[in-house]
Amino acid sequence: MPEDKQSSVPISAGAASYTAPTPVNTPLNAAPISRGFSHPNVPDISEDESEQQQGHDLMNKLQNLNIRPSGIVEVLPAPVARRVEGLKGVHADYCKIEHELKREMLELEKKYLLKFTPIFERRKAILLGDSEPTPEEITAGEAVSEKDDPEAAAAAKQEREDAEKNLSDEDKAIKGIPHFWLTVLRNHDGLSDLITEKDEAALEYLTDIRLVYLSQDTPGFKLIFDFAPNPYFENETLEKSYHYQDELGDTGDYIYDRAVGSEIKWKEEKDLTKAVEIKKQRNKTTNRTRLIRRSHSVPSFFNFFSPPAQPTAEQIENGEVDEDLLEELDEKLELDYQIGEDLKERIIPRAIDYFTGKAIEFDIAAIEDDDDYEDMEDDDFDE
């Protein structure tokens, strides 16, 4: 499948590369360095008065600094500055081991994906109606429902058993679980905003979403969307690959490099990412009229497979790209990578929870938890 829709992280002034927010490389929070700590105000019992005074002088210098990356080191006495450089060397040894850990954890994710795959294949078989769930699988599912809400589970089971006694021919003819993946995507808060009414008609043909990791030489992952034959495009699969940079970042995290999406082979007049305007023009000389068709881009879920175009570093350095445009591009790329991660880490493994709505409760709880905190201004750290 050709992949020629690409994007990579912008190298805009002051903007850092995006860290891939996977469970193997992302801390729970980035706490301010001052959280939980205060400046020492009791000297060590071994300090004499001279040492105390030197320490106080140094502390006063540090406290009066407008902190910047090199600000502290610039005011340190030479012996202390030398020790700081030594600590950097010690930390470099830590980083080497940390990088090794992160790489091994990625390999562990790949290993366990192989164990998950048969489960995902079993899920697909039931969704498509190729197989019915076994009595054991149904019993296990009922146990999960009962654990979540015993009363609701008992009522739902009784209602289902009563309904099965009087099934209509139409109900008996239903195969699998229709529109499963469309419902899953609509029940994700972020993705639901991207899906238009026209997109829904095409996404009804979505039969599976799969995850594969890229090769050892190319760290990253690929999302594969399988479609049944449909009136919208020729592709049987649409793919989106997320590539990490070869080297880990300074914090030991994987850094996004670029995203690559499939080219969608739209059928005639079925492109959901374009709208066509038809205008009538009249020739001033002959008075004849003609119809002009002009297309323009419109919001669509399927724009996901066409990542934002990335300007070159040379274009940015030469000022050929407007700063506002760069900022807008940064936001689009960040959203694109977040969607990819949510599909990988949440939607694919927990699809049934998004279908039933159970996952929505967890998402809302997470949002409410985030709302308990507010961003701090730079001035807040100077107080």
Automatic annotation (TrEMBL):
Q: Which GO terms describe its biological process?
A: nucleosome assembly
Q: Where is the composition biased (Polar residues)?
A: 19-28
Q: Where is this region: Disordered?
A: 1-48, 131-169
Give me the Gene Ontology terms describing cellular component: nucleus
Residue spans with biased composition (Basic and acidic residues)?
157-169
Domain of life (superkingdom) = Eukaryota
**Family per record:** Belongs to the nucleosome assembly protein (NAP) family.
Q: What is this protein called?
A: Putative nucleosome assembly protein C364,06
Q: Please give the organism.
A: Thanatephorus cucumeris (strain AG1-IB / isolate 7/3/14)
